Amino acid sequence: MTANTSPEATAQPGTPSEAEINRAKTKKSLPALLTIFLLGTLMIQAFNLVFQNVGDSLGMSANAALVSTLPGIVLGVVCMLYGTLCDYISPKKMTIFGVAALIFGSLLGFFGSFNFWVVVLARIIQTAGGQVAGSVFLVMAMKYLNNKERAFYLGMFNAVYYASSAVGVLAGGLIASIDWRYLLLVPLLSVFLIPQIIKNTPDISGTGERIDVLGIVLFAVIAGLIAIYFSFPSPWILLMLALFILTFAGYVWKASNPFLSKRFLANKGYMAVLLALFVFYFFNFACVPIYNVIGDQIYHISLSQVSLCLTIVYIVATLVGCVSGAIIAAMGRVPMLLLSAALMAVGAFGSALLITKGFWLLTIMACVFIAGITMSYTPLYDSFSVTLPQDENGRGVGIGDLMMNTSASIGMAAYSGLMANDGFGSKGFLGIQPGAEAQASNMFLVMGAAAVLALLIVLAVRRSISDKVQTAE
């Protein structure tokens, strides 16, 4: 489908091969893409912090959460969409489109900041534009870099994600104290990276195959309905979701060349990685709110103190992301995933046991838990590149992103339901008193059980992944 060759292809004497040229360009463009992704992602965390300020100042307090929820829904769709399109469309064209959208959204939001719905639209455009750089970064790393380089850049991508969370919270708090409108202008810094993007990003499109527009649209609608359901639960949305899934399944079965073929869906190695990804990230979104609850209801400390501790947790996640490339090189994918699951289990079960022993001890356990989640990212995404042909890496990454976001959304719904159930905290274990203490402790026990399940899944599917790795490498 593509004209690309393997990154390890051998060049003619004295003349660099196309693969070597693409590899060199990719290594030069990835820092710029990573910076643009950071600028887009930190906006998500910043507006998660200040959305109520936006609603209050524009007389839309009751609808303020839409500033965060609607861009979040769009993010869940475009993560899948962009990854898939990278198999067909030039990375350079995709990135230029994304930067243009990011800049346009910034200007629209700032100059239209007198209207709540314009701000919401601007945030949607910013979110969609900023994610292009992230999707292109991942796909280019998969397609054009060798194993060692790929692991390093995947680790850096993960580190930047968590760093942007910390920076976004700090930036949101700082700028909101002046005027939240100026926060919308932060992504304009990406203008300075356009020359590097144009010069270095590979300009290679998929050839020999038409884009499966109908299949991609059907799958994007499914992704959108999933995201909408976990933001605005409704049985009608579930019914529509079921109908579109059945329609898509029939389409894949009958279409001559769908973008998700039966061969793709029957890839046991890839599906095994998706299953592991689903379980590893199930409680990813629940990490922060549970510590807010503990700080407020058990230790009665201020939100600023909780935020300080969570900033430390994000810093640990960032550091682990930075070294995860070296860890995978030393350990390999499967042992690293086992270590990740073990750290998550220790952090969760440790928090359950130490729930009344001090907030700083719980912060240490949170660092252990988040280190486990962070460490799992590189081996999971690195496995995509060796369980799929190179020309399917884009859709593999896109579906992986969709799975990760969907899993975390379902986990957040499960977390919210349990924490809202008074009966969940009616009995504590190991001397924990009923009430808020038992509720938080029991929640950590559930999170620990999920980590153990992740470990068992890795043990169960390791042969499938390892067989694929041996074949690919």
Automatic annotation (TrEMBL):
Signal peptide: none annotated. The keyword Magnesium does not apply. Residues 1-21 are annotated as: Disordered. Its main location: membrane. SUPFAM superfamilies: MFS general substrate transporter (SSF103473). InterPro entries: MFS (IPR011701), MFS_dom (IPR020846), MFS_trans_sf (IPR036259). The chain crosses the membrane at residues 30-51, 63-83, 95-118, 124-145, 152-176, 182-199, 211-230, 236-253, 273-291, 303-329, 336-355, 361-381, 440-461. It is found in: Cell membrane. This is MFS transporter.
